[in-house]
Write a structure and sequence with these properties.
The structure is a homodimer of 203-residue chains. The first copy, chain A, has 203 residues and is of the alpha/beta class. Helix content of chain A is 51%, strand content 15%. Chain A folds into two domains: 135 residues, 3-Layer(aba) Sandwich (Rossmann fold), CATH 3.40.50; 55 residues, Winged helix-like DNA-binding domain superfamily/Winged helix DNA-binding domain (Arc Repressor Mutant, subunit A, Orthogonal Bundle). Chain A has ten helices and six strands, in the order E-H-E-H-E-H-E-H-E-H-E-H-H-H-H-H. At the A-B interface, helix 1 and helix 10 of A face helix 1 and helix 10 of B. Chain A binds a DNA duplex (30 and 30 nucleotides) through helix 9.
Chain lengths: 203, 203
DNA sequence: AATGCGGGATGACAAATGTCATCGGGGGCT
DNA sequence: AGCCCCCGATGACATTTGTCATCCCGCATT
């Protein structure tokens, strides 16, 4: 009996290619393909899937939240996260959301089917390098508002813009930015944004 | 006789999956897979490939430069660019570099094989939406140095950092940044960087 | 009850940033 | 020769940013 697999990735070409790749395996059957995270849990239930392969970066509902939704809706379905960026914070949060595996998109293609099988068997699959980084990295030191302000700052607006979009006083915004810079070690607002992004603290 | 295809993409998983997808087609044969742009031209020659499918964003030699190298080394080989981002500037420069086709990664997977065939027949393949954007967008208004400074600014360093990395005076750096902001319409350094990136003016 | 932490804000101050005028050198176009 | 644009730089100036001290509120921990 073959493994029933749901695939979600926002890039249609990649999604289809992954489906083709895994469809070649005799013991894997791709039962659904989704372009965003919103419908994943429903699709898993509808097709009684065994494994859901989810991209982290997706419009609408992101992969981590989708993973949590899948766990709630169908606890027997394993979740394998696939992502472009090996951000330590992503791995940690994916695991907390109940994911069983986490692979980055530059692992060799041959290993993917094996990862799906392992996850299906109840094993955990984690890139060892990434796991090590994740341990040394530590949790996000940023508070909710600091993250919010950093995200608002990430498209390059002025303090006034950020204040408007976050409904805060300009002075407060500068305080949060200052705190975020101190915690990230960035010497500039932009650097703080980059560091926070690299660590997967923004999502 | 089948179409001999070379694939270059920095993400191994995507690369392998694309190879699997296209390998299913009876008239296409994947003869080489590369992880960066440096070896593409050589591989095309060695395997006497008919079509090269190249990602734009790659470490080492980028896809556009690789396309130009392929054109020089093997003029009979058609180049099909595949990219994550539909930046107008990418399309324009890819065409100038001699690419025959340009598709973004969220086109449906079924259309990819068809794109390869069209390109092989000597036809051009271009996303119509993107083509329209590319026409209205106009060329980059930025000068070489402005681009250089913007790139140096894109990781969030201070003026002093940029000046050091570009071997320029701090005042000069501020002048270039100011000019770049005026030309892009950005009100901040960071905003100028974002706008330039979105238009494909940085590469 | 005291302490600590996060959210929200103000005011003041130093440093960085963005703007502008100006200078000189070089190359290309008419 | 004159004009325009790019490169590189300097100095002055207004604005923005980043930093810090300080305040109040609410909530959870001790």
């Amino acid at each position: 009996m073959s493994i029933r697999l749901v695939i979600a990735d926002d890039q249609a070409l990649v999604r289809g290619a992954l489906a083709a790749l895994l469809g070649l395996e005799p013991d894997i059957e791709v039962v659904a393909e989704l372009g965003d995270g919103t419908g994943v849990a429903a699709a898993v239930v509808e097709h009684s899937a065994d494994v859901a392969m989810l991209d982290v970066e997706m419009p609408g509902l992101d992969g981590i939240s989708a993973a949590a939704a899948v766990r709630r809706a169908a606890p027997s379905c394993r979740v394998l996260m696939v992502t472009t960026f090996g951000r330590p914070g992503y791995l940690k949060r994916a695991m907390q959301a109940g994911a069983a595996g986490f692979v980055v998109k530059d692992t060799p293609a041959r290993q993917l089917a094996e990862a799906v099988r392992r996850v299906h068997q109840g094993l955990r699959v984690v890139d060892p390098v990434l796991a090590a980084e994740s341990l040394t990295a530590g949790d996000s030191p940023l508070t909710e508002r600091e993250v919010e302000v950093l995200k608002a700052a990430s498209d390059g607006g002025t303090v006034a813009d950020i204040a408007k979009s976050a409904m805060l006083s300009e002075g407060t915004v500068r305080n949060y930015l200052s705190a975020a810079m101190a915690k990230t070690g960035g010497r500039t607002r932009a650097e703080a944004v980059r560091i926070a992004e690299d660590n997967g603290w923004l999502l």
